[in-house]
Amino acid sequence: MTSAPMSGRKAQAARNDELILQAARAVFTADPGAPIAAVAEKAGVGISALYRRYPSKEALLQKLCGDGLRLYIEVTERALADDGDPWEAFAGYLRGIVDADTNSLTIKLAGTFHPTEELHQEAARSAVLAAEAHRRAVEAGVLRPDVTVADIALLFEQLASIKVGGEERTAQLRHRFLALAMDGLRVPPAHRDLPGPPLVDEELSARWIPSA
């Protein structure tokens, strides 16, 4: 059974909402202190249209963080449901979180708004799942036992801080350095070829050039 198509007004509202959320992710992950008007401008919608959907910047930040937490939970639950090779299941969890870039919607925005009770519950759920993914990998003998859940959390933060070039290049470099980290996390340690082309000096120096 297919759902009935949305009316023109509802379809436009849905498009506006997606534009607003995409713009908010870009604006606030770059600068959590940016004004909400910057989101409306980037989304190409009027400020009144934004306020009809999100009555305040606080509400918009809560929505973004909630999206990040739910995505983290989804990725981790999928990895925990993998009954195959224990290391590949854990590696899939690591790669999935890096691909989802959930840290940009959670840790990056931490302290910029007041969490709701629902967000507290989702954060607690994500912590339980992270601990379970860690426990399984350690007990299977594929993850160094001296590596803690907090170590993995900080690894995600470090990888999320890599931003060089466009989205595709940033993703390449994040996975390159994740692969390097995973070789040290694994038992026994691995030494695989690193994915993606290495960073070059020109890419590093380009970050000093002001954007137009």
Describe this entry's structure for a reader.
With 212 residues, this protein is mainly alpha-helical. The model has no long low-confidence stretch (mean pLDDT 91). The protein has nine helices and no strands. The protein is globular.
| Main sheet overview | none
- Tally of helical segments: 9
Backbone CA Rg: 20 Å
What percentage of amino acids are in beta strands?
under 5%
What is the element layout, followed by pairings?
Layout lengths: L7 H23 L5 H8 L3 H7 L3 H24 L5 H15 L16 H23 L9 H12 L6 H19 L15 H6 L6
Helix pairs in contact: 1-2, 4-5, 4-6, 5-6, 5-8
Spell out the key features of this protein.
single chain; 212 residues; mainly alpha; 9 helices; 65% helix; 0% strand; globular
Quick recap:
The protein has helices at residues 8-30, 36-43, 47-53, 57-80, 86-100, 117-139, 149-160, 167-185, 201-206.
